[in-house]
Design brief:
mainly alpha; 2 helices; 54% helix; extended
Amino acid sequence: MGVATNMTFHWYGFIVGLAVSIVLWGMEYLVRRSDHKAKISLSNGQIIAVLIIILIGARLWHVVTDWQLYGQLSWEIFAVWQG
């Protein structure tokens, strides 16, 4: 008994996921490349901050590129569940 799902691919989600991966990889690369002799690692707080910044940036990009949907400054700009 299988559950039928209607999964679709969205470039928006793919690009956000790719951005998260690139930023985390880049941060780790820069930490390892630094001249500090002590072992440095990314904290959970830093990773969460990066994820929040990426999600806010992605939302801003969506609002700017689809401005015709948000021509008037309305509360729908903050309705992230709508896309």
